[in-house]
Every structure is written in structure tokens, then in C-alpha cells.
Amino acid sequence: MDSAGSTGSTDRTPRGGRVRLLFYGILAGLVLALALARLATGPWYQVYNPASALLLEEGPVEWEVVYFLPHLPAVAGEAPSGYTVSPVQYRALGPLWVAGALWAWTGSAFWALAIVDLAGWAIAGVATYHLGRRLGARDSAAALGALLVVASPLLASNMWTHVLHLAEFASLPVGLWGTLVLLDADDSRAAGAASTAGAATKRSNRRTAWGRTGRLALALGALLVGLSLTYQYQWVVAPLAALAAITRPAGGRGRALVAVAGAVGIYVAATVAVRVALFVAGLGDPGSQQDAVARPEALALSGLSTLDRAGLWALLPNRGHLLATVGLYHPLVFVVGIAGLGLLSGRARLLGLVALVGALFSFRLYGAPWTAMTAYPFVYLGAGAVCARAGDVAAHLVARLRDRRRPRPPPGVALATAAVLAALLAATTNGDLVGNTTFLLQWWNVYSPVLPY
Amino acid sequence: MASIPSPTAPAPPEARDAAEPGAGASVPAAPPGEPAPVPNSWLALASGAWQSPAALCLAIGCVCAGIGLAVAPVPDIAVASGRGLRLALALWGGWTAFAVITAMARHGSAAPGAVTPAQGATLGRWPFPPDWQIALGGAALLVAALQRSPGRLVVNLIGYGAAAVFLIWIVRRCGGADAAARAVAVLAVFALVPTHVDWRTTPLTENARAESPFRWTVGWPGAAWVLRHELDLTALARRPQSLMIPLAVRYDGPAQVYLTVNGEALGPLALVGGQSLQARIPERLVDGQSRLTLDLRQRPHDPVLRLIAQPWTAGATLGARASSFYDGERWWPGTFGDVAGRQKPGMYVIRFGLDP
Known about the structure:
The structure holds two protein chains of two kinds. Chain A has helices spanning 14-41, 44-48, 72-76, 87-90, 93-106, 109-134, 139-150, 153-156, 165-195, 202-228, 234-246, 253-280, 296-305, 307-310, 319-329, 331-341, 346-365, 369-372, 376-402, 413-427, 438-445; strands at 53-56, 59-62. By secondary structure, chain A is mainly α. Chain A has a two-stranded antiparallel sheet with strand order 1-2. In chain A, helix 19 packs across helix 20 (413-427). The longest helix of chain A has 31 residues, at 165-195. The relative contact order of chain A is 0.11. By secondary structure, chain B is α+β, with helices and mostly antiparallel strands. In chain B, the strands form four sheets. Chain B has a six-stranded antiparallel beta sheet, with no helix packed on it. The N and C termini of chain B lie far apart (65 Å). At the A-B interface, helix 1, helix 2, strand 1, strand 2 and helix 3 of A face helix 4, helix 6, strand 1, strand 3 and strand 16 of B.
């Protein structure tokens, strides 16, 4: 799958397109296989806490599906008088809308929600692949990273819960990829404008530059709004966008930073507009579900309120948070993933490390496994890079063993070795498929301990 | 597979023929001076249908509607037509979505500063209006369809608008303007079809269903029956102090479930809210023990009082051996699905707690 060109460039030949399409098919097939296998071996949540599971149209779900079921009729029917959009539904309004429409198409709420989760699972893999390519990873490294994301506990754990978490978690690599695409496109437009700026006046150049800034802010703002309707990753992507802006290879860092700030302003304004629209339509009073989920801004404010009493140390994550995070990925996967960041570009290393630190702080505020794994695209891309490099080393060794004077790597050895290593990494967190539920139970017990039964 | 000429790479020879209108089949060249032979109309029709699947999907939908009408116990033309139309639209949407994904895969978008692909690609014989016009048209139709329900309209506009903006941007960038137009057309159809239904009833959840393969109900078919669940205490860091057993259905009848722990009778479990049975587990019965054995008996016999069982036992400390039942004559592993009258591998759903 490696590109014909340099690292990061795309093979735009028909063969390259067919290979990419085949890869998308492999990701989708892997998603289906892992999801359907869990119906036989046991969905993660139902194995972890069977007493809190339920049935929806004879399909297994988690009890929190009740937050979303009353809102399917809001899409496919006249909303009942008591229907409102509280934070738990607002942050999933995008996937909820898709699920409601699918319910009207299929007549099955269970399969409507399942299709949304399955699609989200596959999109997470595809988006991680493209994010990896955008960060300068080779085809094989990005592809292996995507496969590891698909096999990750973050996504497997929430299948057959029907709380739209898979669709929500997929929005992170999509948002990161979109941010980098927008910044890089602005970069190239700025470079193009600079190369043809000889005859233009200074004022005209400034107008053009600020026009580009405005368009970039609008696009990034729309991206943040989209992220707020598909979970809450705008709080992660916005700081990383600022970091990517000030570390961009070309100039115009200040202008890019202004664009990011403008994007945040546009996001706030658009969010207010959406909430006003919901209020005007009679949907805005959150009612009893106001606190059904923890909101990042509320958690951050409550954390700051403890500053006086407990001091700054109370806000910082501690060794326990770090060890728990390592365990949630699996120690081997985490170590390989962090080491692999060193094989990616400087931009990927910086963004990945900052995302990891941010994840630790998030975990400190809200102790859920998915919060601790907020940096998951970077960790798995790093692991993919290590597998790809190990494959290269193996191919080189085999070539030298066969002919010391003119070693020629045999075809397929690198990819096969890398694939085997990636499969071994994936196996560390998928033991439940063969009856070993130790990791599964440890993973979910980080969220809320449940005694074995 | 639909031929999707790439705007950035030269089309292979076989694709050039397919790109010519109406030339899906190879037509032998006429000798000089002779009139051109008439192309095989069925082949041309099939090739045209392949590249423009709308007619084919409509045909399939009509056929399926007809079949549905023929086999339905009570024929209803409106229902059958609706289902056939929905099937046709779903097939067209899936076909078009696959063509769009194929176009995106061919163009890709990973290089920093990649330029939007040329706008010349087509995904079929029929050109579509610009993507933004289709998106606005879809929104206008949504408003027209849902204007009497502001709440439903706002929710649908928010979802449709966010999806349309994102779809247009990403597909246009990765697949070209034509692909984006087709993608947003699929989205518009996807959003508009549900506007003709009015489903106000919230789908309901259940604790269990009698013969569900995922969570079934279990009871005591006879007075002598005993349900047993065992726990390997050596696998626990802390010993349980209480247990809670959810009921399959709400119960407020006369029957009670009596608990025996490691051979010691502890009396009836407390019925809490008609929805669960709860009890304390005395420390003396778990301290120093390697196994906790719970036996559940029902007195008086009442088939309405039922517990929940599930097939997945990998999380139980004793796996598939965790639960068993006694039918008055011998012990059996797993559970008994008394509605079907047969043994079902699985375990009873019980939660242990630390709060006494």
C-alpha cells in the first residue's frame, strides 16, 4: 500500500485508488466481524455488568439507551409535549438525527442505533488512516494504525450499548484530520499568493490575507460546531488547532492563530444560535436530564472551585491516573504507541504528546476510560509506525541473510511482519473473543467497579 | 463496477469507451461506405442502467412491491407501494454512496496542501445540479414538509444542515464536485423520506423476554426446583456483603424466593419495589471460604415470578459452570428455558455488592 511518492503524498493512480478502496472494505469487514463476534462471545458491557443491561426489540443494549430512545420520535414524528434536548442529547444530536431517520426507514430502533454505531466504528478507522497520512506517516504505518484503532478497546467496549458512543468517539480523528486539512490548505494558498504577489500592492496583499483568515476561521468554526453535535471533542481539537497553527512550517502563524481564535468565537455564536432555535421550538428546557452527563465546562469550573481549598496539586493528574491510562490501552500497546510517536513527524509528536497530557487532565476531571483515551489516534498511529518499521527491519535482515553483497528485500516480508506485529498488539485487548475477559473487566471497572459474579 | 474516470490520471483504454455516451457495449466499426451498425439495444440499455442505476432500482422496488402484495395475508397497495419505493430509494442511495466512496478513494487526500481535484469527473451519465443547490433544495423541502411541527423541523434542520455542510466539504475535496452533488442528493433523500411518517411512540426496553437468545426469563417450573449460582471467592479482592437479583417483570404476588448460602438457610429475599430481590450475605458465611453457593427456592409456586438469564458466561468467576438448576431429580448445568421446555446454556443475572 505504500505510496509511489514520498512520505505523505498520495498515490492517485487507479491502482492506488483500488488499493485504498480495498482497505476501506477491510476496515468495514473487520468492524462487522468484531461486532458480530461479540454477540456470540458477549458484548463488553453485558459481560461487565449484566444487571444493568436491557433488551431493545430483542437486541442487547445498556440501560442508558433510555436517554436517547424518547428522542427518536422527535426526528420521525411530532415531538411529544414533554420532549426537550438536554446536554446528553445535544452533544449527540448529529448521530441521534441519523438514528431517528434510520428508524423511520427501517422500522427498527435497535438496528437504527446499531447501524449508526457500526458506521462510526468504521469511520474512526478510515479517519485515523487519513489523519496519519496527513501527519506524514507512510501508507503502511497509517493503515496499521487504523486497524489498531478498529481493534481498540475504546470502540469494542461500547458496541451493543446503543448510547451512540462509537459514533461520538469517531468524531475525534475526523475533527483532527479536518483541522489539519484546513490549516494546510490555507498554508498552500498563502504560499501560492506569496509567489504571485510581485505586482500586487501591500494593501491588496493584506486584504487577501485577511480574507483567507476569515474563511479559515469560518471553516474551523463550522468544524467545531460539528464536533459539538457529535460529542464534545471541540474542547480537544480547538487547543490542538492552535498548536498546529503556531507550529505550521510556513509563515503566517499569527494570522492562523487569529483564525483559530475566530473559529472559537464562531463556534460560541453558532452554539448560542442553535440553542436559541431549540428554545424557540420549545425544546430547550433540559428538565430532569440536565445532569445526566458531565459537561467539560462544568467539570473544569468545579475543579477550579477546589483550587482554594486543596491547592494547585489537586487539579493535576497523579501517578494513578497515568498508570490507569497505560492499563486502558494495555501497557504493551501504550509503550509501543508512545515510542512510535518518535517515528512520526515533529508535528505529530508534538500534537500527540499535548493530546496525551490533555487526556490525563481530562481523566483527572472525569474518570471514564474514554476520557483517558482521548489521545487514542496518536497512540495507535505511533503503534502502527513501530509495526511498519519493524517490518522494514525484518525485510532487510532477510535480504542480508540471503545475499550479503547485494541485499534485496523480498516482496511482502515487510508488510507481513508488520501485520503480524499489529495483530499481536490487537490481540492483547481482544482476549474476550477467546474467553479471556480479564482485560475487558479491568477496562470497564475503571469507569465504575462492579464485583465479579 | 461503475466506471469512474479519474480527472488526474489518464483513463485506461477500456474506460474511455465506457465514458462515451451510449457506448457501454463495444460496437464493431462499420466498413467504409457502409452505414454504421445499430448497437445492441439491450446491451446499451444494460450499460446505461449500470451507469445510471435509478431506473434499475425503481424496477427492483416495483418487483419487490408486487411480490410483497402477492404474499401478504392482507394485500395493501399503499403499504406495498411505500415499501417498494423505500427499497428503490435505499438501493439507489446505497449504489450512489458506493460510487461516491469509490471516487473519493481514487482521489484520496493526504498530501499537505493538496488541491481540490478537477471538477470534470462524473459518476454517471446524468449530470447533477451543484451540490449547494441540492442541499438548499433539500432544506426547503424539509421546511415545507415539517412546517406544522416546529420542534421536529428544528431537530431535522440541525441534523441535516450539519451533515450537508460536512458532506459537501469532504466529498468535494476528496471526490470532486459531481461526487459531492450525488452525496448530498442521497442525504436529501435520506432526510426527506422520514417526513411522511409520524411515529410518536417511544421504543420500549425490556428487562428480558421469554425466549430471547440474549436475555430470557427463568422461573421455577415446579415446587421442588432449585436455581443455583456459584461464585469463586478466591477471584475476588473483596468479599461480597449483599446481592441483588433483578426480576424479569414487575411482581407483587404472594410467592417468595428463599435463599440458602453455603448450605445455611437465610429466609426469603426482600422484594424491593416489585422489581428486584435483595439480601445481605453474612460475613461468617464468606470469610475463609473459597466458594459461595447460592440456592434459590420459590414458595408458594408462582410461574409469574421470574428471573433473568443471559448466554454470556465468560465474565462469571466460574464461567459456564456458574449457574445450574435442580429439577427435583438431578442437577443440570446452565439455565432452564421453561417456556420452550429445554435447557439453555447461560447464567442467572445477579449483582453482588459491598454495601450490606
